[in-house]
Amino acid sequence: QKEVEQNSGPLSVPEGAIASLNCTYSDRGSQSFFWYRQYSGKSPELIMFIYSNGDKEDGRFTAQLNKASQYVSLLIRDSQPSDSATYLCAPAGNNRKLIWGLGTSLAVNP
Amino acid sequence: DARVTQTPRHKVTEMGQEVTMRCQPILGHNTVFWYRQTMMQGLELLAYFRNRAPLDDSGMPKDRFSAEMPDATLATLKIQPSEPRDSAVYFCASGSSGLAGGKGDTQYFGPGTRLTVL
Q1: How far is B83 from chain A (nearest CA, A)?
Q2: Each residue's pLDDT tens digit, B5-55
């Protein structure tokens, strides 16, 4: 079993729809959970992190965490073509290291 | 605008040559991470420094790769000799481990070095 699992996609949604990206992880000791966005040919950039069970909202983005189910998700409301990118899920492991998933490719169609 | 910088941005070299990549972490950050990214493997951690001390280099091929932090403003990753299978994008990231919770785990990435070994 991989430490972090994400559906590779591509996930295709129409402009204006809600995009839902999911991630499961194996380390029950993880406390912080990160979502990064990576455009093709660019470096990963932080979208947000979540620390507590439940929802955390930041603009059009909502992260959801369920530690009991070892599941974290990212919802993107009112998806825009500029949201087309790969989204990386990364729980924090030991010693401030992040454990990276392979990412989900999102395509938002105009 | 604080950013991680990396040089060179692109490097094409021949098999057997030495390659040196440099990273300047964000001023005040005390953790530095070197990653390699390929389509198949995703982000692989090669080396991790905290307060300039190496904490983890288990992901790095020891026979040809080496990583150092000669001072707090410079981290280097060297490959000698380089091989075609080393072709990838190499990212440096920095963070501030003294911050509590998620802020202390956050990593900020540089633009990367795209390495091609012929």
Answers
A1: 22
A2: 999 999 999 999 999 999 999 999 999 999 999 988 889 999 999 999 999
What Cα–Cα distance (Å) separates residue A27 from each residue in A3, A88, A89? 7, 17, 13
Per-residue pLDDT of chain A (110 residues), as tens digits, is 679 999 988 999 999 999 999 999 999 889 899 999 999 999 999 999 999 999 999 999 999 999 999 999 999 999 999 999 999 999 998 788 999 999 999 999 99
In whole angstroms, how far apart are CA B32 and each of A19, B25, B91?
32, 7, 10
Task: Considering only the beta carbons, identify the residue of B50, B105, B112 that sits closest to A98.
Answer: B105
Cα torsion at B42, A100, A97, B22 (round to 10°)?
Answer: 30
Interface test mutation site (partner A, options B38, B41, B105, max chain A beta carbons within 10 A): B105
The distance of A65 to chain B (nearest Cα, Å) reads 14
Say if B42 is an interface residue toward chain A (CB within 8 Å): yes
**Parallel, antiparallel, or unpaired: how do β-strands B31-38 and A45-50 relate?**
unpaired
Q: With beta carbons under 8 A apart, name residues in chain A contacting B53.
A: none
- What separation in angstroms does the CA of A7 have from each of A14, B28, B78? 19, 36, 34
User: Are B105 and A101 within 8 A, CB to CB?
Assistant: no
3-state secondary structure of A68: coil
Of A31, A45, A102, the CB nearest to B109: A45
